[in-house]
Design a protein that fits this description.
The chain has a 4-stranded mixed β-sheet with strand order 3-2-1-4, covered by helices on one side. The protein has one domain: 2-Layer Sandwich (Nucleotidyltransferase, domain 5). Helix 3 packs parallel to helix 4. The mean pLDDT is 90. The chain starts with a helix and ends in a 5-residue tail after the last helix. The radius of gyration is 15 Å and the shape is globular. The protein is an alpha+beta fold and 122 residues long.
Length: 122
């Protein structure tokens, strides 16, 4: 089997395994994280109503000028703080953390820890 195809299948299985237990409700929406090599973004989603409540990305113009490069731990930490501030302003106190198929370390863990420190319950 092709190595890239095998890796993609593993990621897909891991994503399904993580997301089958996580559902975002109006009381506790889902904090979904996406990371690429150069950027990181996250959304707070209510799966019942199928609506995005809050979003933040390292590609936003104000944040991009402040951070410079969006693909490192410092950018993920800043993004975690920003999404937590926006969520608290929108009246969201607690969320379910959806890491997708990414391992909980590095940028993903930095984003989660920064959101916790800013007052969001994960």
């Amino acid at each position: 089997m092709n190595q890239e195809k095998f890796i993609q299948q593993q990621r897909e299985r891991r994503r399904f395994r993580v997301r089958k237990n996580i559902r975002g409700t109006s009381a506790r929406p889902r904090l979904c994280v996406f990371r690429s090599n150069k950027n990181i973004s996250c959304q707070i989603i209510n799966d019942v109503e199928r609506k995005t409540l809050v979003s933040a990305s390292s590609r936003e113009t104000g944040l991009r000028d402040q951070l410079g490069y969006g693909g490192n731990v410092t950018a993920a930490t800043a993004l975690g703080r920003i999404v937590a501030e926006r969520a608290l302003a929108a009246g969201i106190q607690a969320v379910c953390f959806d890491r997708g198929h990414y391992k909980y370390h590095g940028r993903i863990a930095a984003l989660a820890n920064a959101a916790r420190e800013a007052g969001l319950q994960l």
